[in-house]
Amino acid sequence: MWTVGVAGLNKTLENRASDIRIWNEALPGKIELTLLRTRDERSALLADFLHGLAGLASKVAVRESEGEPGEIPSIRLWESWTFHMVPEAKELDPFLNLLSAASTGDAAGLPEAVGKMLEGVAGPSLVDIYVSTQCPNCPAVMDRLCRFPLANPRIHVRATDGMLFRERALENTVRAVPTVFLGDGQRFAGQVRPEEVAEGLIHGDPSLMSAEVFGRMIRAGDASGLAEMMLKRNRVFPGVVELLASDVFSLRLGAMVAMEEVGEAAPRLALDSLEDLWARMEGAPVPAQGDMVYLIGEFGDAAWMGRLEKLLRREPSPELREAVEEALSMLRQKTEE
């Protein structure tokens, strides 16, 4: 939450005044930030922060411009960065780090392999980051991803405080932070790794993302976001099927939640995905097999009854037998309706 200290400064700036002056001395030259001011009352929060920062850091210059109707206020750094946020609290250091890097054009904070990958991004691309100034995982994600334009100027980074600009977070169904979107609908959440986002920018196909990426989305509480990605692509991703065969219950549960949302919105898509699920049955842990069988009962049709009956004849474990019998009951009920 934005607050003002006794000296009239943003509270974070007041507390970090000495650090900011030291940081300012290390800057190689001046750097200009632009405040896009709109009729939105939150413009004042961004303005107070920027002018407070410039008051402490003589090498920071601030200019203002008027936004178009419907725009929300922002802080802009050249053409490559837009911040719909007050970079205070935990987000101050990533913001200052970016200004330092931008002043020299140094992308040293990126792993060398990531920088080389980003050079292969051929067209204009947007990396859309949602954070909170109190989020423990957000600063590291911000610090890494905000450096992307330094490796390739075709990339634009936009960072939004999902608490301050709640309406934008709701519009994009942001349920956890950090959450990162790419222009083609790819979505990442949790402790996002720069390698994953770089690959997403290059390949542009979320179905190629690994189970590890989807697992982080689930751990961050964004199973619904995963479902939305699959619905947009009209495909159940192989990485999600892999999670359904996992021996980690929390990951299976999140993947099942995503699958149930897919099945509710697109029953045929869920039905078509069952073949891939069945192919992972052999070798999966018994609890995972039970969850897979449940999904077959949930989304399958009469054509699946023969396979489940054959599975029963193999004398499975009591736990799996119970799941198969329940799934068969669900399928029989569908045929009778």
Explain the overall architecture:
This protein has 337 residues and is of the alpha/beta class. Helices cover 52% and strands 13% of the residues. The protein has 18 helices and 8 strands. The chain has an 8-stranded mixed β-sheet. Helix 4 (92-104) runs parallel beside helix 6 (138-145). It is elongated and about 80 Å long.
Q: Note the beta-strand portion.
A: 5-15%
Sheet with the most strands: spatial strand order: 2-1-3-4-6-5-7-8
Given as residue ranges, the uncertain stretches (5+ residues, pLDDT < 50) are 1-7
N-to-C terminal Cα separation, in Å?
Answer: 54 Å
Rg over C-alpha atoms, rounded to the nearest angstrom? 24 Å
Secondary structure tally, helices: 18
How is the secondary structure organized here?
Elements: H1 11-15, H2 17-26, E1 31-37, H3 43-56, E2 60-66, E3 74-77, E4 81-84, H4 92-104, H5 112-118, E5 125-131, H6 138-145, H7 148-151, E6 155-161, H8 166-171, E7 179-182, E8 187-189, H9 194-203, H10 211-219, H11 223-233, H12 238-244, H13 249-265, H14 267-272, H15 274-279, H16 286-299, H17 305-313, H18 318-336
Parallel strand pairs: 1-2, 4-6, 5-6
Antiparallel strand pairs: 1-3, 3-4, 5-7, 7-8
Helix pairs in contact: 4-6, 5-9, 10-12, 11-13, 12-13, 13-16, 16-18, 17-18
